[in-house]
Amino acid sequence: MRYQRITALLFAALLLLSTMPALASENGSPQLSAEMQRLIEQKVDELLAQRLATIQTDGPHSINKPTVSKGEQHQIVDDVVRSLTLSGVVEVEANHTKDFDGNSSSDLELATVELAIDAQAHPWVQGHVLFLYEEGDDDDVVIDEAFITIGNSEKTPFYLNAGRMYVPFGNFATFMISDPLTLEMAETQESAVQIGYKSENWHSAIYAFNGDTSEGDKLSDEDDSSTIEQYGAHVGYSFTKESWNVTVDTSYTSSLFDSDLLADEEFGEAATDDYIPGFGVQGVLSISNFTLIGEYIAALEDLEISENKKINPYTFNLEGAVVVELMGHETAFALAWQGSEDLGLTDLPEQRFMASVGISLFVDTALTLEYAYDKDYDEHDGGSDNNSKSLTAQLAYEF
After folding, report:
1. d(Cα 113, Cα 91) in Å, to the nearest integer?
2. pTM of the predicted model as reported, rounded to 2 decimal places
3. Other CB atoms closer than 10 Å to residue 63's CB: what's the count?
């Protein structure tokens, strides 16, 4: 209605403007005609200005709305693309296994697919999402990691991570296809908050989360509440000089039995009676083309799982590797000795001996062959007292 009134006034003013010279001539006053025409033109200008202001603020096709040229649109798209980084890995494996029961089997599978998306539209904020697929019974794609990082390494060595992550307990470096026993026991995925520090040589972090365990004296059948009271810390130092490098890491967690493996195992209610802290240490020494890896992770207190039985689990990994050029391809030969203690109720072996050969076929493409020999726990410790063997070939591509 408002637009109709203004339009009608404009139409009337224009009509009057067109007829006034004739009327003034009939009355014989050229001066009056000129003055009236000036006044009418002034009024028309005022009405047009009012109409324009109305369109700019309220109109259905407001010209006050931002307009973006094609060049600006392309620039926006380019900025978004530059803020995103895609990376990932595809692993295809073939294996032959003889298990602890003496059964033989072989398989060919798409073992792992990872796709990571990192977005940074602001110098101080970055988002990270990692999708994971592992061939199995469910064949589901899961969000393995998703967290926000606040920090700017060019301005400060401190940062904050918040979201779903693997907390920095353990290091788990290896040349093998299979995960080391240290990772199998201690890897802990949680929704957590982490405050970290990273400089040229030092890196450290503290973190907190609400885990799966709760102290028995703080949880009852009538009280199903849980709180954020699991925490941990990680400190590492790395030093490089000419042809050698050394890295040492130490880790602490207030609740080792919140790891992905131990939280899922059947230890009765013992694991909830009290938190069992854990400690880890790892060293990596590289001299020229030789590398030595050592890692040890253990519970700091005994866990009483029954009236007459206590366990104090630990795992270790020792590896040695040499990298040489073979027929124009970088090739790594590696040996490993791994072991565990008091984990007969899990699927981990008591000892594992391994050998691997990895060849870099092309850029970011590797073919690795691994042999593993496992010795199980004795029967009275929850094992089978048998041995198992496996041979695995993996073709991996990273991007």
Report:
1. 6
2. 0.78
3. 10
